[in-house]
Specification:
D-Maltodextrin-Binding Protein, domain 2, 192 residues, six-stranded mixed β-sheet
Length: 192
Amino acid sequence: MWSKKPIKNLEDWKGLLTASVSPVTSTLVKDLGGSPVTIVFFETYEALAKKTVDAAAQSAHGGVVFSFPDVCKYFTAFFSVPASAGYSINLDVWKKMPPHIQKILQEETARAADWMANVMVTELPDSDLKVFKEKGVTVYYLPKAERDKWAKQLEPYNEKQFSSFGELGQKVKKIADEVNKKYPYMPDKGIL
């Protein structure tokens, strides 16, 4: 969360005008007590600069790409809405592909995913933190106890979303629970 003032607890969210680029981030902002303002992501910098909004629901790297450190001096890391990149293909098209082409496509997408995972884990955090330091951005890692409070606020929405997808939603929830158990929130690691 990029902001013009520190966001360290639920009280700091009260009425916070926050740029949001999706229904999911709008719900997050609203459920935490803020006031979401729908803005196309490439207009967020201008809204922050003109003080139309006081904060933006955006990743650390996304903020760096859009020069948020020039207008926001605070970043709260709490790992809320995952950014995802994926590949999709029409199932009918997939079924018509020869097996060797399917295999090539699977291998290449796996290779691209591994490359991106490496970039996200090893390169971006260091380069982003360098920009934060140069621009005087204060990074605040939300303590686990406070993050648990935020998660509790968001629980009804998450459960509703999982339920709306029926059996698939329960499978996704099970996977998420397993991943969260294996890789628990650890603010002391200092990774963006």
